[in-house]
Amino acid sequence: GQQVMQIPQYQHVQEGEDFTTYCNSSTTLSNIQWYKQRPGGHPVFLIQLVKSGEVKKQKRLTFQFGEAKKNSSLHITATQTTDVGTYFCADPNTGNQFYFGTGTSLTVIP
Amino acid sequence: EPEVTQTPSHQVTQMGQEVILRCVPISNHLYFYWYRQILGQKVEFLVSFYNNEISEKSEIFDDQFSVERPDGSNFTLKIRSTKLEDSAMYFCASGGWGANSPLHFGNGTRLTVT
After folding, report:
1. Do B56 and A37 touch (CB under 8 A)?
2. How far is CA A87 from CA A83, B21, B57, B87, B93, in A?
3. Is A109 near chain B, with CB under 8 Å?
4. Which of A17, A51, A90, A94 is the most buried (most CB within 10 A)?
């Protein structure tokens, strides 16, 4: 099946530091979505990127879609403890299979 | 805001037993999904359902699994003969009007097979 890999798998940061997770696909994506899952919770939709090179911001979160549409990143500026959770990219392209990436688990140390 | 509801929140069953996990998707959504997440691991796609039939299924979704939308509101996942390795959190999700619509997830059912 479609492989969407994310790095790193785990990230520990001090509160106030920045955080970035990267999502890489083996094939070109028509669009990509990002989700956040809090510990013990369910994935919650954050954003969708469609255009090559697209950049979108949500407060301290910046999402990018690569020029070749094979990778994406999520950057959090000045992390807070509320940012704790696992961040997944998701590929809704391959038929209706809607694969999720491997996820990056973020721990924020106060 | 409308939400996806799943019942039960926790199901304990013995190996070999059948279980049915229930979901009520958001009412005007057209696309329905089941995912599985083993503790601390990735969210694994199981099956998608559209227009009253399975659209796609993963290699995990073998003959032990089936899905139904028996009426206009419920969406169920049945596991016929549970195995220990079926222990996981099962999430139902629904999406709106297109195959790329963002997914709304339920709170999940934690299945424990003993």
Report:
1. no
2. 10, 26, 24, 23, 17
3. no
4. A90
